[in-house]
Structure formats: structure tokens, C-alpha cells
Amino acid sequence: MSAATTADAVPRPEDIVDEPLVWWYFMAALAYLAISMAAGMLMALQLVHWNPLNGMELLSPGRWRMVHTNAVAYGFLANAFLGGLHWAIPRLTLRPVLNRGLSWFIFAAWQVVVVSTAVGIILGQAQGIEWGETPVWIDPLALAGLALVAVNFMAPIIRTRGPYYVTLWYFMAAFIWTFLTYAMGNFLPQYYVAGTSGGAIAGLFIHDLVGLFVTPLGWGDSGGWPSFIR
Ligand code: HEM
User: Fold this and answer.
1) Which parts of the chain have pLDDT scores under 50?
2) What is d(CA 84, CA 107) in angstroms, rounded to the nearest whole number?
3) Is 7 inside a domain boundary?
4) Secondary structure of residue 133 in the 3-state scheme
5) Nearest CA to ligand 1 atom 19
6) Ligand 1 pocket residue status of 71, Cβ below 6 Å
7) Domain membership flag for residue 184
8) Ligand 1 centroid to 40 CA: how many Å?
9) Which of 27, 72, 111, 189 is close enough to 36 for a disulfide, judged by CB 3.0 to 4.6 Å?
10) Environment class of residue 152 by beta-carbon count within 10 Å: exposed (0-12), middle (13-18) or buried (19+)?
11) Is residue 2 part of a domain?
């Protein structure tokens, strides 16, 4: 095969990466980072006994502390990771994701999940599980969203021939573990395991969110760093 033919067979990155979507994910991540830090400031002011909004239930620092942690995890980190995945996976597999329309739907649905979580927490609907404060009615939607994310990204990975980049193994692990961790933390203590045992599971949930959601995606993205260079 001539060099020209070989080059023709490799798709151009701009044809397989939905760059506007990546941009929007990063913009959303930055917006939630700003919101989260503003909420963190409100909590911090309470800790130094200077809450400027004393007596206002909707703006009470206790609730905004949860907005702070949730907006960091699900607004900032998850959006940034999803943007990174949309950039890296097509480049590492030389294939687009399963469906671009589905990608944009997931983007919009995820923003609805994050905003609804914040609004629910502010209105006092928080679930009594740290980092799992997401109101109970949002949990099934978030879980369905995580399943769609996995399907959308697994399609190009499964179609890839030959050995996978290590980054892709980390990403695949993250898709499975994040789904299972979210289900464990948000459903088991709420509906099935009461008392101290439920508390132990809630603790494991926090631990696993870091170890099985943030770590594999963080490792994957750092391993996939060369793919971020044009
Ligand atoms: C202006 C910036 C920030 C401010 C003022 C701020 C403030 C706070 C405050 C007051 C708390 C509660 C501490 C407590 O209850 O004892 C907190 C918790 C937390 N913040 Fe921030 N924060 C900021 C930025 C960030 C960023 C950028 C991240 C992560 C990327 C982050 C992650 C966390 C986490 C994980 C907790 C929970 C810690 C725990 O429960 O032990 N914060 N933050």
C-alpha cells in the first residue's frame, strides 16, 4: 500500500471528534466550578461566624455546602471528564462515538441533572448520603444517563481491532465502576440496608467515587494526554 493510500485510510481528527461538544463540556465545567466556589465561599463565611444571609433558609450555608460538593463532583469534574472523553476516545480508536445526536442529548440531560440536583438541595430535598445528596427522583435518571454514556463510548472501543491503549482500559473500567458505584451509594442505604450497615455503605460510596470514578478517568486522561495534542 502506498504512503498516500495509508494516510487516506486514517480519518482526520476533526471528522471524528465533535469539537463544539467538547468546547461546551469544558464551558459547562468552568461555569459549575465558579458556582461551586461561590457556594463554598458561603459555607466558609459561616465557619468564621459571618454568614451574611442569616435566617434565609434557601440560602443557608448547610444547603450550599452540598451545592458546593455536588457542583464540584458532578458539574465540574463530570463535565470536564466527558469533554475529555469526547476528545480522546475517537482519536484513540480512530472512530467517532456511537451517535452524535445521542452525545448532545446526554450533554443536555446531564446539565438538567446537575441543575435539578442543586435546586432540589436548595429546596431541602437532599438525600441523607454524603456526595449522594442528589434528590431521590433524580437518581434513576442519572443512572440511565451513565448507562447511555457507557454505550455511546463503548461502541468505538469495541469496534477497534488490535491491542487497546492502556488509557482505553482505564476508561472502560470507569464506565462500569461509575455506574455500579452510583447505584450502590444512592440506592442501597436508601432502600435496602438500614442503620450502621447503611452508613458503612455510604462511606464506601464516597471512597469508591474517588477510587473508581475520578481515579480511572483521571489516569486515563493523563495517559491519553498525547491524544490531546493536535
Ligand atoms: C473559592 C474556592 C473554594 C472555597 C471557598 C471552598 C470552601 C469549602 C468549604 C467551606 C467547605 C466545607 C468545609 C467544612 O464543612 O468543614 C468545602 C468542602 C469541600 N470542598 Fe471546597 N472550596 C473551594 C473550592 C473547591 C474546589 C476547587 C474543590 C475541588 C475541585 C473543592 C472541593 C471540596 C470538597 C471535596 C469538600 C468536602 C470536604 C469534606 O467533606 O471533607 N472545593 N469547601
Assistant:
1) 1-4
2) 13
3) no
4) coil
5) 69
6) no
7) yes
8) 6
9) 72
10) buried
11) no
